[in-house]
Amino acid sequence: MGLFDGVMGGLVGAGISTAVQGYIEKQGGLPAVVAKFEQQGMGGIVQSWIGTGSNHPISAAQLEQVLGSDLVQQLAGKIGMGAPELLQKLAQILPETIDKMTPHGVVPPA
Questions:
Q1: What is the pTM of this model?
Q2: How many whole angstroms from its chain centre is CA 64?
Q3: Which of 9, 17, 73, 84 has the highest CB neighbour number within 10 Å of its CB?
């Protein structure tokens, strides 16, 4: 069971865990996901998740900006959940998940 399965699966079920894991892999791993957040002006937020301090929150709207509405709709459809509900859950879970994937404040290589 991967980290996403453990953290996300316990909170919202295996469907979202699988969808997010697939998203990260399709993007080229965690470094590429972090770069995408930075490109969308969310660098300070994602860096707080990576660093050893407190995690800054992210809103559902900010997440949709980073992920894109087409991808959000695809993920939501795959797991049988509405896009607004998916974004709310991801906004709660993603900061902690990335924080746990980077325990020493460093993004592991893809």
A1: 0.79
A2: 11
A3: 17
| Nearest CA among 53, 50, 21 for reference residue 35 | 50
Tokens of 39: 């490109």
What are the tokens at 10?
């316990």
Who's near 27: CB < 8 A, 6+ residues apart?
A: 33, 36
Over residues 4-47, the pLDDT tens digits come to: 444 444 445 566 666 667 777 888 889 999 999 999 999 999 99
Tokens 């990335």 belong to residue? 98
Write down all domains in the chain, each with its CATH number in brackets: 3-101 (1.10.10.690)
Dihedral sign for Cα atoms in the order 10, 16, 20, 25: positive
56 in helix, strand or coil? coil
Q: For residue 82, which phi and psi values (nearest 5 degrees)?
A: -70, 150
- Phi-psi category of residue 81: left, alpha or beta, with phi > 0 → left and psi -120 to 50 → alpha: beta
- Tens digits of per-residue pLDDT, 39-87? 999 999 999 999 989 999 999 999 999 999 998 898 888 788 899 998 9
